[in-house]
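Before a computer can learn anything about folding, someone has to put a protein's shape into writing. The three-dimensional part falls to structure tokens, numbers that each stand for a local backbone shape. The protein below has been through that process, and both of its lines are reproduced in full.
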Amino acid sequence: MTKDRFKVGIVGIQPGRSWGAMAHLPALRALSDDFEIVGVANTSHASAQTAAAACGIPRAFSSVAELVGSPEVDIVVVTVKVPHHFEIVSAAIQAGKQVYCEWPLGNGLAEAQELARLAQEKGILGVVGTQARFAPEVEYLSALIADGFIGEVLSSSLVASGMAWGATVEERNAYLLDLENGATMLTIPFGHTMAAVRTVLGGIIELSARLASRRTTANVIETGETRPMTSHDQVVVDCLLDNGAPFSIHYRGGMPRGTGLLWEINGSEGDLQVRGENGHAQMVRLSIHGASHADTTLRPLEIPDSYLAGWPQDPVPGNVTRVYARMAADLRNGTRTAPTFDDAVALHRLIAAVETAASTGCRVSL
């Protein structure tokens, strides 16, 4: 597929506060040689008109169906809440559009598998937004390990805060409290971070897990109202990596008072440590500390300029920009370097294995 610029229609823009506005708009505009934003659709025409006017988008489509069916649109970008992903993405595929869908791809493994099947059947490039794997710190971490900085990986552990799923919640995020919506601490921060972990350390071949609900309610910040919370606020997973190394993970709901994200990798010749202000590795600035061979203490490791130059410095649009750049290259060259719907299915399968292990109390093989 060769074009001077790919024409993009975005579903789900709330000026100044939605992920589409904060991440996708600046990412696409940073790649203006590859992409042209032609329009937006929201839940109503009036909402789309407001978003278009505030964000400088040329057209407000009257409906999602009009955007998906428009000959002006080459790529449909889906940035709405998870329960709506399946309907919009499947409609876009049926209309012959290329698709960029935010993670999670579907509300559960079955939806993701069906969307991947539809995309393959229609010959559509489906890209999923698991951008943490392309963060410059994650790419540098992969290079350090590949170059033998710590020798053979012996074990790893990760503890992180989910930020949401704590004692309080913003009204606009209250849907996260309901397990049935598929937007949980397990699917969102855990899922995004596991995409990066799998890139660095390889696959997980078996695991056991515990999902706990230590909080059963949350207070809405704006109103003080108490809402039930069925999403888990504790995720504990014990894994075996495909190289035989053990790996432990603990995600905790709520805002961090101390550790936001701490990922340690122990090797035969050294150690690496990744830190972040919270557990959403896809959207925070990470730092790397390391000790190798004769080093007796960890020291900060600067990310080489080659990993940073030419990209937005803010990690929110910066990491999304890296995915879009790969998508453009894949459409032009027939390659598959951006995370695809098949990659999303593999990640959904990992999450389903965690859920199965937690519900049965049995160790699960992948």
